[in-house]
Design brief:
Blueprint lengths: L3 H4 L3 H26 L5 H19 L3 H21 L5 H22 L5 H8 L7 H20 L1 H9 L1 H6 L4 H23 L5 H14 L3 H26 L3 H24 L1
Length: about 270
């Protein structure tokens, strides 16, 4: 069994740890609000949009990360508008956009580069794929996400629990819903390089669900989700290295294990 000091002596593991912890933290904080607002599947929809965007970027020969960020932010804004439209509901809007983006991505890949290593890394995640430039961009944007979340914490709290009351008090609900979607879009794009576009949405959903089984207050759930997300990412990253498994899948399995444990604890409490 390798020691942790030896595992994290490799530069690529150091880059993955720094970027992964920040992305996990952002995803957990945003995930609590998204799950409570019943927007939890927005992460899955945006991850499929990011896959479609990266497929087009690879075909055009441009940097996928820089191309995906504006596309996914635009998709998040559009998705929010569709979800609030009287003829649509959020599930239908996410399903339409998710399936369409995935189909476009598959067609573009099949007609251009095919399933290359780069595309495979973006789909299923790879710690080797993280460059120093990716880490710098991830750190900068994740800090921006965290600062915005902390600055607007009380307003996001109000919008999460009661939109009608928030509107009555003069709060710009649409503005904060848009902010939440944009922050989620940034987190999805930043995490897909390491977690993979197919599994990044689990970082948004699992920690929030786990925390809700253990705590009742909003602040308690947010804090628990943050700790849970970071701990599961670190455990998944170490397991991925030692067992030679995909990092995204390893992190999801770690989250699943902790979620099942929290369900057991919650059931025992009710007895």
């Amino acid at each position: 069994m390798m020691s942790l000091s030896l595992i994290f002596s490799y530069p690529f593991m150091q880059r993955a740890l720094i970027a992964g912890v920040l992305v996990s933290l952002c995803a957990a904080l945003l995930g609590v609000s998204l799950v409570l607002k019943r927007y939890s599947m927005i992460g899955d929809g945006l991850s499929h949009v990011s896959f479609g965007a990266l497929a087009i970027a690879v075909a055009l020969g441009v940097t996928p990360l820089y191309f995906s960020i504006p596309v996914v932010i635009l998709a998040a804004f559009f998705l929010l508008r569709m979800a609030s439209h009287p003829r649509w509901n959020s599930d239908a809007a996410i399903a339409v956009m998710s399936a369409s983006a995935l189909a476009i991505g598959i067609i573009v890949i099949s007609q251009t580069t095919g399933m290359t290593t780069d595309v495979d890394n973006y789909m299923f995640g790879s710690v080797l794929a993280m460059t120093e430039a990716d880490v710098v961009l991830s750190v900068a944007l994740c800090i921006a996400v965290l600062v915005l979340f902390i600055l607007f914490y009380h307003k996001l709290f109000a919008v999460t629990f009661d939109e009608n009351f928030s509107r009555a008090t003069g709060l710009k609900v649409d503005r904060y819903n848009t902010l939440l979607s944009i922050l989620t879009a940034l987190t999805i794009v930043l995490g897909m390089r390491m977690m993979g576009a197919m599994l990044i949405s689990s970082l948004v959903i699992f920690p929030a669900l786990t925390a809700m089984r253990l705590f009742k207050s909003f602040r308690g759930v947010v804090m628990c989700a943050a700790v849970t997300s970071v701990a599961c990412f670190c455990a998944g990253l170490v397991a991925s290295f030692t067992l030679s498994t995909p990092v995204g899948a390893s992190v999801v399995v770690a989250n699943l294990g902790l979620f099942l444990l929290s369900c057991l604890v919650s059931a025992l409490r009710r007895r």
